[in-house]
Amino acid sequence: MAIKVGDTAPDFTLTDQNGTSVSLSSYRGKPVVLYFYPKDDTPGCTKESCAFRDQYEVFKSAGAEVIGVSADSNESHHKFAAKYQLPFLLLSDKGDKVRSLYGAKALFGLFPGRITYIIDASGKVQLVFDSMLNFEGHVQEALKTIQTLQTA
């Protein structure tokens, strides 16, 4: 079942690009931008991740953390983050277990989807943005929602 606005974001633990275990629950008390993307170092995913990188300080100044998730290995994430100076966590979701937990559907049932969730400080989902081709839209919508949460 797909996670929607108003739902409590399911907790999970995955490893990051450095092999460190990261749990979503450890970010409770601050907003989280959780974005699922198809594959490291592909044109669309690079464009999306670099757009998040370029706005990372804006997210941080609003008290939010950015976390990317794909099925790629920790080693692949490490290379991708280093190549494009990505300052945020990239988590390895082997077997797409967390993607399934969130109901982040695949395009045509074949390609992992590109979906961004904004989770507020209390763990509630405030935005679900699902667009395979609007790479910058993920960042723009995430920023709008984070800024709304900041003023609430």
UniProtKB/TrEMBL annotation:
One Pfam family this sequence matches: AhpC-TSA
Major location (coarse): other
Domain Thioredoxin residue range list: 3-151
Source organism superkingdom: Bacteria
GO terms, molecular function: thioredoxin peroxidase activity
InterPro entries, per the entry: AhpC/TSA (IPR000866), Peroxiredoxin_AhpC-typ (IPR024706), Peroxiredoxin_BCP/PrxQ (IPR050924), Thioredoxin-like_sf (IPR036249), Thioredoxin_domain (IPR013766)
CDD domains, per the entry: PRX_BCP
Protein name in UniProt: thioredoxin-dependent peroxiredoxin
Natural source organism: Dulcicalothrix desertica PCC 7102
Taxonomic classification: Bacteria, Bacillati, Cyanobacteriota, Cyanophyceae, Nostocales
